[in-house]
Amino acid sequence: MIAQILSTMLPVFVIAGCGALYGRYRTPDIQGLNILNMELFVPMLVFAVLADQQAPLQEYARLALAATVVVLGSGIVLYPVAKVLKLNLKTFLPPMMFNNSGNMGIPLLVLAFGDAALPAAVVLFIVEMLLHFSVGLYMLDPHTSIVQRLKLPIVFASIAGLAVNLGGVPLPAWLLETLNMLGGVCIPLMLFALGVRMLDVDFSDWKLGMLGAIACPASGLILAWPMIQILDLPGLQVASLWVFAALPPAVLNYMVAEQYRQEPHKVASLVLLGNLGSLVVMPIVLGLVFAEGYI
């Protein structure tokens, strides 16, 4: 079991470490890389996985429902905590709800459970991303146009991929292979960019960051448990949901907070200390998942 955890976590740490080491001596345009990743490589991976006829997406509907409950329920569970501690709701709740299902979630699930977990990882990522760009942006600015929120390449890729899969439209093998090769770029690039971002850790709000590092995975895991009991998910999907529920805040929360001027320095602490905290949380969760024999 220890060997399984190490074989899963070490590539994540090594690639992120390479990003941190490179960023320490160079100043890479991470914003440009992230834009390229989110507008080209990630949509290609999403479309390729969703359009592949070998992935029957009807089987992932319950997983998508469970992920929705975990994301939105985390905000409801932690609302009283934020009120009691007199935290700014717009600053604290979005990072607790919208987790790192892209930069960390997809690579971690594939490394932990193999390529068979890729459809589940993509479904979880799409659910989180769509909720982030709809509910999440509404929380920060209720006046933002819904059309503007959803006018993203990943949304179009998701719709197109679902249409191809559910419509039974066959795609040439060479086209799927091309899309998979281009989409495959996004996974190591996500981890590399995450490593560079880790250099921006701001310890001035370390108490808030530590609270988030505990509250984010705790609320997700609390909500995942009843969903697993109620929905009777297959083993691989159960394992994927446990990992998804324990993921730290998404780096995107910081970018959005900066764009909306919503105390970005505090959000940065929540995001980056939460991701540092995952170095402890994720091995524990993976250990429990492997011990339970879901895979």
TrEMBL record:
UniProt KW Translocase keyword: no
Q: From which residue to which does the signal peptide run? A: none
Using the record for this protein, list the coiled-coil segments as residue ranges, or answer none: none
Its predominant location is membrane
Q: How does it sit in the membrane?
A: Multi-pass membrane protein
UniProt keyword terms in alphabetical order:
Cell membrane, Membrane, Transmembrane, Transmembrane helix, Transport
Segments traversing the membrane: 30-51, 63-85, 105-131, 152-173, 179-196, 208-228, 234-255, 267-291
Q: Localized where?
A: Membrane
Q: What is this protein called?
A: AEC family transporter
Q: Which organism is the protein's source?
A: Marinobacter albus
